[in-house]
Amino acid sequence: MQPAKAKNEYNPLDNKLIHCKIKEVNKLKFNPMPKRKPWRKNLYENEEYEDNYTDPTFLKDLQTNINVRFYRLGDVIRGVTVLNNQISCITGFLIVFYVLYSEKVSPTAILGPSFVLTVAGYVCFRWKMLTLSMVLEDSKTLMTVLLFGFLLAPVLHTLTDAISTDTIFSMTFVVFLFNVIFCDYGLSVAMVSKAISVNAAIFGSICLASRLSTSYHAFVLLVEAAIFFVLYPIVTADYWRCYFLLPIFAACSYCLWIISVNVLWIYVAITVFVNFICPCIFVIQQRHKHNIHGPWDEAIVEETTDDNIDIKL
Predict the structure, then answer these.
(1) What band does 178 get if pLDDT is binned at 50, 70 and 90?
(2) pTM for this one?
(3) Cα gap 143→39, rounded to integer Å
(4) In the chain, is it the N or the C terminus that has fewer CB atoms within a 10 Å radius of its CB?
């Protein structure tokens, strides 16, 4: 066996490696790498850079919170009254259904005051441009709707006889929830749909009308549905003021106090939560808004409407 080599024994290969390293260093010193072209925000002109390279100038166009609006608590509370108005509108309609369902009030006693209030609201809404021809045309439309509604009331009254009452009430709750979600509160957002909102309310009204005792009761309830969910939103869309909610809330609370105190507390809790607690949470949390904008954003396609079609043309 050959004796083991000493640790400090000279190895000529080590000397050759050292000389090769020195030559490589000198070559890099006297022949530096060619300077790369400046980075440009163009995918096909940056072949000399790594795929994950990020230039310091990439974020020079970064902007944060452009057009972000911070709301005050008073403005939010006044703005959310339109939502509470819709909730109170549904509550008022359900009160009418309850008094018809329990037969505590006759249908005629409800139809008469509703007719007077509707005529008064029509005059107030149309008084600036009220003409005889307009009154005759609107009266013709009203009579047509009432006539067809009265003729179809027996059919609608027996439309859902095969469905249990519990299922009808559950289905009504869901469709009225759709009415609240998709209702037009004056905001231009994608989820707003007047068609879905009104159709959901009318469908819920038809479901409830099938639980009443006679077809005349069903006809009156459908007339009230048209007043609450078709005519009333048209008036409030133009003339709504936040202080209108006070008499509406007082009237609903008084009626619910007569009907059921427990339901009254539920209505009051929902109103306080929607009109006061939710705005406070929104105002507190809006300081966390941090929207970033830059040239990398997707192009926004502007929707063509009747207001801007003339400008585009």
Answers:
(1) very high
(2) 0.73
(3) 74
(4) N
